[in-house]
Amino acid sequence: MAVGSTYKVVELVGSSSESLQEAIDGAIARAAQTIRNLDWFEVREIRGTIDDGHANWYQVKMGLGFRVDGGEDIRED
Amino acid sequence: MAVGSTYKVVELVGSSSESLQEAIDGAIARAAQTIRNLDWFEVREIRGTIDDGHANWYQVKMGLGFRVDGGEDIRED
Amino acid sequence: MAVGSTYKVVELVGSSSESLQEAIDGAIARAAQTIRNLDWFEVREIRGTIDDGHANWYQVKMGLGFRVDGGEDIRED
Amino acid sequence: MAVGSTYKVVELVGSSSESLQEAIDGAIARAAQTIRNLDWFEVREIRGTIDDGHANWYQVKMGLGFRVDGGEDIRED
Amino acid sequence: MAVGSTYKVVELVGSSSESLQEAIDGAIARAAQTIRNLDWFEVREIRGTIDDGHANWYQVKMGLGFRVDGGEDIRED
Amino acid sequence: MAVGSTYKVVELVGSSSESLQEAIDGAIARAAQTIRNLDWFEVREIRGTIDDGHANWYQVKMGLGFRVDGGEDIRED
Amino acid sequence: MAVGSTYKVVELVGSSSESLQEAIDGAIARAAQTIRNLDWFEVREIRGTIDDGHANWYQVKMGLGFRVDGGEDIRED
Amino acid sequence: MAVGSTYKVVELVGSSSESLQEAIDGAIARAAQTIRNLDWFEVREIRGTIDDGHANWYQVKMGLGFRVDGGEDIRED
Amino acid sequence: MAVGSTYKVVELVGSSSESLQEAIDGAIARAAQTIRNLDWFEVREIRGTIDDGHANWYQVKMGLGFRVDGGEDIRED
Amino acid sequence: MAVGSTYKVVELVGSSSESLQEAIDGAIARAAQTIRNLDWFEVREIRGTIDDGHANWYQVKMGLGFRVDGGEDIRED
Amino acid sequence: MAVGSTYKVVELVGSSSESLQEAIDGAIARAAQTIRNLDWFEVREIRGTIDDGHANWYQVKMGLGFRVDGGEDIRED
Amino acid sequence: MAVGSTYKVVELVGSSSESLQEAIDGAIARAAQTIRNLDWFEVREIRGTIDDGHANWYQVKMGLGFRVDGGEDIRED
């Protein structure tokens, strides 16, 4: 029997008025407030909104993967 | 520092014996029972089951996006 | 009104040092510890890590679908 | 030995001058005239033709899956 | 020399507070106000916005194809 | 009730030692020997085999769509 | 004139209660009962159903390609 | 400040009764009648119609990219 | 009758010798010179050219969506 | 132990001022100058450049597969 | 300056007469004969050939990633 | 005979602890150490690893295209 860890991937959209980079970092920081064992991120979509001729929000949709601890209730992730 | 809100996207499948439209609306209504700040939906897949030569269930898989409040525990979404 | 059940799909990555099959079964077993009504799985990505010239972990990313009970809080899935 | 049923998927395009829904239902009904064990449908493409400024045909391309009976000649599906 | 007609495809998003169907029909009707020779449509994305727990706008992104007349200035399409 | 025709799409791979074009035309001609009402084709994949440093076969995988007549047995297509 | 053989691709779903491998082999064996000249297979989708916390059916959707003989009626494939 | 040129991509479908190649060339020639600075093309879809057992039209959908001049009105492209 | 606004999506490629971010912002600013009601952008492709071992141009292909005013001629967008 | 041959796939872009066909053949011929055991090709992208209103280069991106001989150093492919 | 390692991804197809798993392991083992620092694999395509009604070769196309050492000549990978 | 240059595309992953931009530039710079005629890059995937609640590595997978010189041995690229 060689089953390893199980990881869960939640889909978040980070947003920033400044840049793509900050939108990514912001979502990771927000997730880290309540999720342990964050392990990787995958960018899935980059879009944003425009106001008065300028991008006012950069929005990056990402999968964030984290290891589910042994006893942890997957329903809560 | 201009990080904006963080949004979470959960994947639901709505089902209806009547129509695609009702399957979409049903899933949104079900999610709204327990999720605040529902903001948008994205249709990802349309399928269904057939019984006795007729579609008996229309099933629409969707991503539903909602804003995560400041203190909210992302693990619970 | 003919709205049917609503299903939720969570994204898990199973891992095994032995095989793809075991990685799939391991993730399903882990999810079943805390999620009732597990109904189907969809393989989304197959990858893995290599150490010393051999695959040391097979990793299968899957969507796992389950029926959300009437009163259940979707936020917890 | 635990091989289960084998299913075949045929690709049909239903069409209706009224709606997407009717195009789906029409193709399923037509298939059911000659195919037993119809089990599921998957929508693959939604398009249509326009005449005089209005959609005159809604066309939905779908995969229709059905169980192949033991002795049945797959060539005929 | 057997070159046939050239067609142009513009990308529109129709929206309706009622249904997917109406969102499709609305965009076609709007395009028909200013584009001759509309020939076909292709659905590319179905999404929408949610307000107060209900879909308030259904949004269907479509390609609309039309024949470019001989002398017509493609830049204007 | 405004259901229109139902069309079936079969997937063929045409092959030619000369060119892509001939591979496409060859598959259509072969299908036309036994299928009435052929209506359209969609190219899905272009590949081929190489022998002695040259492409010896060009292979084009295509969907071929045709109208299913009223009484026709879809199982035979 | 250098047109080569024409091949047809039928879409089957094999299923097994044991493994992915067996689901693949089962569908090929079932097709071979009635189709000559089977030449290749392409895996298109891997999914399955879950019962009582375990995968009870592994389902592999595949394209199976075979050469259509000269006189053969493509409608029957 | 190092912003470079902005390019616009219009989507055209070229058609020919002879060949794929001619369908591509025909659409480029048609666009060149009214668009300056045409720079590149990307093939997006290859399909066609069949009449009397032969391809009567080869249709190639392409993106055509061109540089937007400084003062040019993007609305006109 | 609850048809909402119709939006048009034009495809632009922004370019910058400095960064991805500037390529995005540059294309939005260029579009805003002649298009009112710009509402959102979707990144579709990120590529660029290399000269003398360095990226000399970062190129981001994007869809830019804007609301079509009531009387506006869609042909001009 | 039933491991078969290992194949490597290199990605090449062939180009021709004449046609798609010649771009494909040119890349295969170029690869054959230095790669033994070339076995198959897969077309991945068709694009090209435009000059003075005409396609001046047709560019076809392809995967070329070849068998890696027993002792051969994969790093060199 | 925080640039990290650069990794190269080569595309290999492993084959086995026994199973998918063995095809994967076989390609990794073959690559490991000549490539140091193999780090991960990604499955990109699963197909195979059929002979006499049975799968005679299982073929798995994979990307294999490895770290490029400081002085190493990328051309050789 | 109008065959043009042949280009090869290698797949690299650049990584940086700072930003996406730097990950892209780092991989290009690394490739330029040993590859002449680098011509373009295509971003294929953006992901990264997370440590202690922050992105510690941004990883960008890219195709890098370069012209193969007349006499050059494609095996070495």
From TrEMBL, chains A, B, C, D, E, F, G, H, I, J, K, L:
Top-level taxon: Eukaryota
InterPro entries to which the protein is assigned, alphabetical: Dodecin, Dodecin-like, Dodecin-like_sf, Dodecin_bact
Name of the protein in its database record: Dodecin
Organism: Geodia barretti
